[in-house]
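Entry for 3,4-dihydroxyphenylalanine complex. Fields follow.
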Amino acid sequence: MIEKTIIALRLEAEKELAACTDASGVEALKVKFLGKKGRIAGLMMSLKDAPKEERPALGMQINELKVALEQQISSTHLRFESEELACRLAKEVMDVTLPGRRAHLGREHIITKTINEAIDILVGMGFSVQYGPDIESDFYNFEALNFSEDHPAREMHDTYYISKQFCLRTHTSNTQVRVMESSTLPIRIIAPGKCFRNEDVSARSHVQFNQVEGLYIDEEVTFADLLQTLQEFFTQFFGQSVQLRHRPSYFPFVEPGMEVDLHCLECGGKGCSLCKQSGWLEVAGAGMVHPEVLKSGGIDPEVHQGYAWGLGIERLALLRSGIKDIRLFLENDVRFLDQF
Ligand code: DAH
């Protein structure tokens, strides 16, 4: 009885296999006959109904059928697969004369590069690097720097407030009192980082920019030290001797305070659009640390003095590479960024 079924099953499977027209049809057939709940498995189950002495011989026959079907099915499957692949490839048109696509290599952003160069020069001059937070308390960003709550100079900062007490830092000067509180004297640090101000975006100003703060506090620090340090820094940065001009200016956290201008490298001082025809470009604010700020940081102004500066990084990058528009730094246009 089972023997007949075995023969019938073989014929049926072979007929169906011969009728298959593609690889997926063969896959379905495989499940139907050889799957866990397939016909062969069913046949094996039915062995238990056969007389005991016939079972081993019948079992062998079923196994032979299984092996034979496996072979036929897999070779048919392989044949269809390679035919289908050949068909697909024949339809694909390949133009071997097209230029290949070049892998695009990333590179450091020009601003990161400029910051790192400034750091390298200043570290070479004896400063160490400290970082302050981007989100800052009103205390470190303003109050400890001698901006009282109603100080008019606060208005110049167009501050983004996060809450009544916290803001996005408007300058890297926020690091000054933090460093004074956590360091032993003398202090000789620089603090690079992002700053934020709610300004109109234009070719010359942006809501996000970078500064490098400098701070030196010791027992005999003079204004001449400050001038000399800045002169040395700019000379190294631009790789040529540069002419600086110092204009008295007001920042609540320094006294005296000044703005530092660089003789325009673009026009050599004759006047151009970059320097707004003045021949000079503002590159930093600086001054002698105000006694009130030293006190905020727990330092006795009778014994110690210091100088500080804030450098505008975008301005330096702009000047050295002859870029006319500060917005380009944040637009992520690879055609622009690739040049540096
Ligand atoms: N924090 C000032 C600004 O962003 C720049 C500045 C001026 C920093 C004088 C200083 C300084 O350390 O002494 O406008």
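NOTE: The chain is about 40% helix and 20% strand.
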